[in-house]
Amino acid sequence: GQNIDQPTEMTATEGAIVQINCTYQTSGFNGLFWYQQHAGEAPTFLSYNVLDGLEEKGRFSSFLSRSKGYSYLLLKELQMKDSASYLCAAQKGTALIFGKGTTLSVSS
Amino acid sequence: DVKVTQSSRYLVKRTGEKVFLECVQDMDHENMFWYRQDPGLGLRLIYFSYDVKMKEKGDIPEGYSVSREKKERFSLILESASTNQTSMYLCASRRDRGPGTEAFFGQGTRLTVV
Fold first, then answer.
1. What's the pLDDT tens digit per position in B61-80?
2. Which residues of B fall within a CB distance of 8 Å from A43?
3. Nearest to residue A54, comparing CAs of A66, A64, A45?
4. In B, which residues are within 8 Å of A30 by CB distance?
């Protein structure tokens, strides 16, 4: 079976740092993706982790602990345009299985 | 750039109609997927295909079928549309099933069944 959990909503202010957590229980796990989705738009790829540790990409970083079934997405120097939904997805075989998404609201 | 194109952005259909949602990708990807996205439920996998004429059920296949006659095209079929199938439908493709191969999404089709 599979279960992917992430918080429903988060709020933060411009310039701040926010961490969005994701826990998963997925048989046949083969990596963890993060996607960003602005309202009314398609999800777009942000990051991927398959090994334990931190992957950094500019203002965004993603961390994975396979033994704990845990990942987080770290967003630094928040900007208004970062207001979006952030989707955690576990790779299981061919498919990506998504969590319900975290809606992040950034205020000035 | 990979392009995943869904044939309609908005559709309104009547209960009981047979509905076809079409998706085309232009990068020779092996894998294609259909998801539906609903508020509070996130993206849920309906069906996917890993090769021409091959398909696998996802988490919520009931009431749906799919067709993949050509590598670039993956169709979702609602055999007899019902109001609980009103949703945003998203098509995606991946080059292959290798680790880290990202999925690219189409813009979505918002289907309303009345």
1. 999 999 999 999 999 999 99
2. 43, 90, 105
3. A64
4. 99
